[in-house]
Amino acid sequence: MKRAFSLALAAAALACAAGAPARWGFGPFLRPEGVNPVIKPDDASVFLCPMRGAQVHWEVLHTFNPAAVVRNGKVYVLYRAEDNTGKMEIGGHTSRLGLAESGDGLHFTRRPAPVLYPADDSEKAREWEGGCEDPRIVESEDGGYVLTYTQWNHQSTDAAIATSRDLVTWTKHGPIFSRVPGGKYAALSYKSAGIVCRAKGGRLIAARIHGKYWMYWGEGAIRLATSTDLIDWRPVEDAAGEPIVVLSKRPGRFDSSFPEVGPPPVVTREGIVVLYNGKNAARDGDPNLPADTYAAGEALFAASDPARLIARTDGPIFKPELPFERSGQYTAGTTFTEGLVLFKGKYILYYGCADSLVGVALSSPRPPVR
What we know:
By secondary structure, this protein is mostly beta strands. 5% of the residues lie in helices and 41% in strands. The strands form 6 sheets. Strands 12, 13, 19, 20, 21, 22 and 23 form a 7-stranded mixed β-sheet that branches. Strands 11, 14, 15, 16, 17 and 18 form a 6-stranded antiparallel β-sheet that branches. It has a 4-stranded antiparallel β-sheet with strand order 3-4-5-6, with no helix packed on it.
């Protein structure tokens, strides 16, 4: 197994890197030869949908935007899968989360049925018919798992929490801000949330800073939130009571339209490394990228002050280059990063390709983990 992984990394070194990373970043991310895409649609998978009361081909159209975690010496990927119901447009189908496992991080075996999906439960109004989308996952200090995901009901989005002990059976806890006093954020439509973690024992574990857990969240602008239990979260607010913005768009850059949170950020010796996805604007964007392309960048925040930005990459460190990253239901192209694991001494990045497929890229562990 180790030899196979080493050979894959050697092959990846011959592939083209997407950009020169900062010295504090996790790159370069290199695509291994002969394995991508690692998860593709499967028209044979069927599932008895509790909402429709009928069998549905739950991953027949698209499989993309993955979360990833290491458990019992294997990599597990939770990925978004779309069925063929609804309108034939982005966001028009029902999404559910599938689970796949791998002994080498590159070749996966999938479960036949989704593990998180809309049902007749407390979250039905927020998840039906759009579904459960775009997960990020961290391991908790007690060995459990905390998942953030997007709830979509074809009207608005919420970033929600679910927890599990085995990655198969999940308990839904509702939107991350649902218990803020007075329902202050009840009407807010928001998504994309990554809980800060650090490397322990070869895995990435949710990290406390000043006695609290921290989360970077948001699409359009990236903000902060804190929690004492990983379930109930509070936005970090300014003096006027508004959520502070810690990362925003930049004209002329790959993130000129907006930034959006990527995988769970990681505490390192240099600070908190935040991998994020940037959308390129049609006007005043990066001239080296097509309009509306999603590419990945990195930002570094102070480990002692998660709101203080130290550095940020000028250009993308990973961008759509291969045909399957630029052709699919999102034709402008995406390398949409959501999953990051430390596995056998290497960082592995899992990403969505054009809202249609799951890809993988490899890196060495830099900066040093803390």
